[in-house]
Amino acid sequence: MIKISKRMNIIKKNIDIKQTYNIDELIDLLKNSSKVSFIESIDIAINLGINAKKSDQNIRGTTILPHGIGRSVKVAVFTQGENIEIAKKAGAEYIGMEDLSSKIQKEGITFNTVIASPDAMKIVTQIGHILGPRGLMPNPKLGTVTTNLSEAIQNAKTGQICYRNDKNGIIHATIGRINFEKHQIKDNLNTFLESIKKAKPPHSKGIYIKKIVLSSTMGVGLTLDQSNLSL
Predict the structure, then answer these.
(1) DSSP structural state of residue 128
(2) What is the pLDDT of residues 56-100, one digit of tens each?
(3) Which are the contacts of 19, defined by CB distance < 8 A and separation ≥ 6?
(4) Rounded to an integer, what distance in angstroms lies between the CA atom of residue 146 and that of residue 142?
(5) Can you give the CATH number for the domain in which 150 is found?
(6) CB 43 within 8 A of CB 175
C-alpha cells in the first residue's frame, strides 16, 4: 500500500482533483499549494486522441516557449573543425567528437540537449543506446542535426523544448516554474498547445486533445477546463 505524505494529504483536502479548473484558478491552486523548499517546475501532460501504435499518428516536434522553462540548459554539441569555435561562442558546455562520446560513456549524461552537425552523426549513432532512451538523440526534424549550430544552441538556451508522445499517446513536458508570473505561464501554455495543435496527424480521428493536466513537481495533477481554450 502506497503511503501518502502529510503534505500531500493536506493538498488533497484543499483541492478537488476530480474537478476541472479554468487556467487562472488552476495556476493559483498550483502556486498556493507549493510548500516545498525549492522552486518547483510546472509540468504538463496532454492525452491525445491518436493511435500511438501507428507510426503515421505519432507526434514529435519542438517549440520555443516565449518565457523559457526557468532553468539553465546545458548543451552538448558533436562537431569538428571551425564549428568548434562557433559552438563555444554560442555557449555550448560540451563540444567534441570521439572524445565527447567517450566522456558520455564513462561519466553519463550531464546535459539537457544534444546538437550535432551532419558530419558528426556517425559518432552520435554509436551512443544512440544512451541518448535515445533519454529523448536526446539529435534529429533533423527537430533542428538538432543542423549546419547552423549557433542558432540551434541559442534556441536551446532560450526556451526551445522537444516533445513526443509516449506509447499511451500522452505528451509530457515542462512549461515553466512555479515562481513565474501568471501571464508567463499562460503564454508558455498557449504556445505549447498551439504547437501540439499544428502537429495533429492527418489520420487522427475524433477528439484530438482529450485531456490536459498541469502539476507542480511535488504537487497533484489538476485537469484544465478546455472550454475557454481555442483548440
Answers:
(1) H
(2) 999 989 999 999 998 889 999 999 999 999 999 999 999 999 999
(3) 223
(4) 9
(5) 3.40.50.790
(6) yes
Whole-number Å distance between alpha carbons of 199 and 173 = 15
- Write out the residue range of the structural domain in which residue 81 sits: 75-158
The confidence score (pLDDT) of residue 146 equals: 96
Rounded CA-CA distance 139/121 in Å is 10
Q: Which residues of 11-31 are buried (b: 16+ CB within 10 A; e: fewer)?
A: beeebeeeebbebeebbebbb
Average pLDDT, the chain: 90
pTM summary value: 0.80
Please list, residue by residue across 40-54, b when 16 or more beta carbons sit within 10 angstroms of its beta carbon and e when fewer do. Answer: bbbbbbbbbbbeeee
Any domain includes 46: yes
Cell of 206: 475524433
pLDDT tens digit string along 107-133?
Answer: 999 999 999 999 999 999 999 999 998
Q: Are 176 and 62 in contact (CB under 8 A)?
A: no
